[in-house]
Amino acid sequence: MQENNSSVDIASINEKIERESAFVDILSSEMKKVIVGQKHMVERLLIGLLGQGHILLEGVPGLAKTLAINTLSQAVHGSFSRIQFTPDLLPADVVGTLIYNMKLNDFSIKKGPIFANFVLADEINRAPAKVQSALLEAMQEKQVTIGEETFVLDRPFLVMATQNPVEQEGTYPLPEAQVDRFMLKTVIKYPEMADEQMIIRANLKGSFEKVNPVVSLDQIARAQQAVREVYMDEKIEKYILDIVFATRFPEKYGLESLKPLINFGASPRGSINLATAAKCYAFIKRRGYVVPEDVRAIVHDVLRHRIGITYEAEAENVTSEDIINKIVNEIEVP
């Protein structure tokens, strides 16, 4: 990295990030008490938390998605709530509502489960669009309006939504504009056999260790500020823009074969989130500057839900993952 850059003192940034990121290892090891394996998921949760974004987790039931965010909230000393999305859920069940109090002859406000630091939106694609949009407004604006009053949500505020693979019965696919609000979409795979053996043993014993609060909300707030200070060279910015623009205009990057496969490319929100996530990844690795590997490590999670594929791509069994792989392999690394 440009050590000789006079306007940016990489050494002092590095020192600060090393200091501020000390809690990452403590937090990870505290979560490992309960979460066996799934390192990828835990890392993505931390990136969402540090980048002040939200996460969409996709995977079959039973892969510890609920357990992961609950464990994170315990380790961070934050409040946790879970909303089970069902086809009969109403927006008021998420954000809250006005209740008439006969004694006082007046309305009082009953806040919904959205008022927590960590909100698990379980099986988000089982609820109709009206409820999904109520949740997504809160995610975007970080505030909720009930009646005529507006309430600012607590910070940090992290929504982790889980969805079953779309082929499953009784699911409403999330519209593109709503999916775009999620900083990351992480696909969770089954655990390795050795990990699953440990999971079986721990469950049969009933001997899960207690998760202790090891990080304060103030420390998280400081870390969120520190992430912004991670140095990103202009070459890395250009690399991020090349990747995103290649999803929109593949022919300009010698990828003409992708043109008929892409319906629409990543939005500017994709560029912002890719840059933010790369900084968060560098922070987790306790570095004060971003390297191309940080971008490559996180690019699938940031872009997989932001590229629309055509019917032609579906017919050829080409996924957004395949498109990202081709782009990342083609774009020159700085």
Automatic annotation (TrEMBL):
Residues 54-184 form the ATPase AAA-3 domain. The keyword Nucleotide-binding applies. Residues 260-327 form the ChlI/MoxR AAA lid domain. Pfam families: AAA_3, AAA_lid_2. GO terms for molecular function: ATP binding; ATP hydrolysis activity. The keyword Flavoprotein does not apply. Keywords: ATP-binding, Nucleotide-binding. Belongs to the MoxR family. This is MoxR family ATPase.
